[in-house]
Amino acid sequence: MIDLCIDARMALSSGIGRYICEILSFFRKGFLRVTLLVDQLGYDWAQGFDQIVFNTPIYSFREQLLYPMRIPTCDFFFSPHYNVPILPISAKKQVVTIHDLCHLEFGTPLQKSYAKFMLKKALASDIIITVSHFTKGEIQKHFGPRQVHVIPLGANERRFKVLSPSSAVRGRYRLPKKFILYVGNNKPHKNLHMLKAAFQNVQLSDLALVMVGKGTPYGEIEEGDLCHIYNMAEALVFPSLYEGFGLPPLEAMASGCPTLVSKAGSLPEVCSDASLYFDPNNASEITEAIRRIVTDQELKKNLIQKGFQRVKMFSWKKTAEEHLKLFEASVHA
């Protein structure tokens, strides 16, 4: 039996939250005893696991003071983000997943200092996981050679798939008839100012830009509605300047939505030849990519088919199994 404690307080965050909830669904194994640190009780995704309430803010001084008192005696303490405990804890080994080094690249001076300090602590963990070879390279560029396990994220094929048009979802969000879609938050590295500027020059009167996610015009979308929106979109456009992985392009591919993505970060690694690429710093290239996908039906059809093939290479089941293999190997090492 492996005793595993997971800091699950970020389960409602976008990318990291999806990661936590998806792999947890495969952690209901006979050889695992899982305990979750949660900010409150009652979450559906946490049902069936032992839970310890730890409603202290992420990145806080109080978080670090209370970690040793909240983390039970266990074989592994798993941090799904780099905010690892600094003080000694009652875990035989520590595991961390570092999704990206975005705070080092785009943070304020204070954020950069904090990120550098905490990443050094995180990289002292017994098992270091990251989600792309790009991020592994970034870690080694900033902090030198070390053993880092690359485990790509997945796409939920039960949630993201081809669906019939939903007039209810269209009406609920007052979606235009024909639109290009962006999914994500509005943080600076998401490059939304460039996307807006580029879209103004598309000059197709019947085409709209729909941006969904925290801080965007349409805001956060009900979980069950996102797949319908992917299905209705002409294409997903993802103009990020930096990504550690990038889940929305995979979700779009699984939903039969062609993808236009930037050449930055991990995106070429994740999307391979199944996307149409552009320079995220060149508004004209973004404009041209949008025009092409709307007017070239053969291109659109080709990208949809390549997307279906590409997304088959990623599954949350495989992601979870690779984690479990690391835990088992470390126990027996």
Question: In summary, what is this structure?
Answer:
This protein has 333 residues and is α/β, with parallel strands linked by helices. 39% of the residues lie in helices and 17% in strands. The chain folds into two domains: 2-154 and 315-331, Glycogen Phosphorylase B (Rossmann fold); 167-311, Glycogen Phosphorylase B (Rossmann fold, 3-Layer(aba) Sandwich), CATH 3.40.50.2000.
For the largest beta-sheet, the strand count, sense and barrel status come to: 7 strands, parallel
The number of domains is 2
CATH class of the largest domain: Alpha Beta
- Category by helix and strand content: alpha/beta
Any idea what the radius of gyration is? Answer: 20 Å
Percentage of residues in strands: 15-25%
Distance between the termini: 15 Å
**pLDDT below 50 for ≥5 consecutive residues: which ranges?**
none
Describe the structure.
This protein is an alpha/beta fold and 333 residues long. It has two domains: 2-154 and 315-331, Glycogen Phosphorylase B (Rossmann fold); 167-311, Glycogen Phosphorylase B (Rossmann fold), CATH 3.40.50.2000. It has 13 helices and twelve strands. The chain has helices spanning 15-24, 61-70, 102-106, 109-122, 133-143, 167-173, 192-200, 226-232, 247-254, 267-271, 283-295, 297-311, 316-331, and strands spanning 2-7, 32-38, 50-53, 74-79, 91-98, 127-130, 149-150, 179-183, 208-212, 235-238, 259-262, 276-278. It has a seven-stranded parallel beta sheet. The protein has a five-stranded parallel beta sheet with strand order 9-8-10-11-12, sandwiched between helices. Strand 1 (2-7), helix 1 and strand 2 (32-38) form a beta-alpha-beta unit. Helix 1 crosses helix 13, helix 7 (192-200) crosses helix 11 (283-295) and helix 9 packs across helix 12 (297-311). The longest helix is centred in the C-terminal third of the chain and has 16 residues, at 316-331. The model has no long low-confidence stretch (mean pLDDT 96).
